[in-house]
Amino acid sequence: MRIIFIGDIVGEPGREATREILPQLKKELNPDLVIANGENLSHGKGMSSEHMDEMLKAGINFFTSGNHIWQQRSIMSRMDEKDPHVIRPANFPPDNPGRGWRILETAMMKRLLVVNLEGRVFMHSDYDCPFRTIDKILADTAHEHLDGIFVDFHAEATSEKVALGHYLDGKVSAIVGTHTHIPTADSQILPGGTGYITDVGMVGIKYGVIGVNKEEILKNFLSQMPVKHEIADDGPAVFGAVYFEIEGGKTVKVEQILREVVL
Q: What is the rounded CA–CA span in Å between residue 69 and residue 75?
């Protein structure tokens, strides 16, 4: 099974860069599934139903999300569809719209369990424990015939991400970190056969501050006064993704993808 996972897509520049790069990338790698984190898809704050459909047409098959997902209310009803194209973190409160995992089926009849989790360190919210949450999901789906298990851990602290990677090594096929928008240089296959990277990075303007207009962020750091976060739109865009090949439930190849495009 071949999977492309795209890091946090930030606003219109991120969507445009995805439209530019993804078609050629799919020709090169011929993936069975393209998954992306969409929690910053709409103006950097959440994911609207309209923008999700735009990215589905661009070639993405499925979306994970994170702490900003509820900032666009139109996505809530889409999460409760019979076959939703997006999940929210599984350790959010259970009465939230949607689900935290879904089993996807490829054209070649391969079945992939995709799980979304939210970190707790530095996140300032009372989420359930991601470690115990994934244990329960794995137990609940143990009867399913699965060809792979893929986890998006949307978290701030590198230590928490690395720890979950070791905790799940040999239990899942691959785990990617998202949220910080900065790609890490540690794509690898862990000893138990789990593909891993601490953070995939983002799709957004290169010379902003994690996709946001740098002037406003600098003003905030210098003055400690609140500023409005506007999506940067000046300069080239970066495209951060990771490619996995999974056989027998284990990762046999992992390749980091970092590209630039002039919008």
A: 8
| Dist. CA 108–CA 18, nearest whole Å | 25
Q: pLDDT for 227-247, tens place per residue?
A: 988 998 888 999 999 999 999
**Would you tell me how many other CB atoms lie within 10 Å of the CB of residue 6?**
30
Catalytic residue among 68, 154, 179, 181: 68
225-234: long-range contacts at Cβ-Cβ below 8 A with a sequence spacing of 24 or more? 229/44, 229/45, 231/10, 231/11, 231/12, 231/13, 231/43, 231/44, 231/204, 231/205, 232/13, 232/204, 232/205, 232/207, 232/208, 233/11, 233/12, 233/13, 233/205, 233/263, 234/205, 234/207
For the chain, domains (ranges, CATH) are 2-261 (3.60.21.10)
Distant-in-sequence, close-in-space partners of 245: CB < 8 Å, separation ≥ 6:
1, 2, 3, 251, 252, 253, 254
Residues 3-30: tens digit of each pLDDT: 999 999 999 999 999 999 999 999 999 9
How confident is residue 203, by pLDDT bands cut at 50, 70 and 90?
Answer: very high
Helix (H, G, I), strand (E, B) or coil at 49: helix
Query: How many whole angstroms separate alpha carbon 100 and alpha carbon 114?
Result: 9
Report the mean per-residue pLDDT for the chain: 96
Residue 68 annotated in active site: yes
Token code pair at residue 231? 């999506």
Q: In terms of pTM, does the model score above 0.90?
A: yes
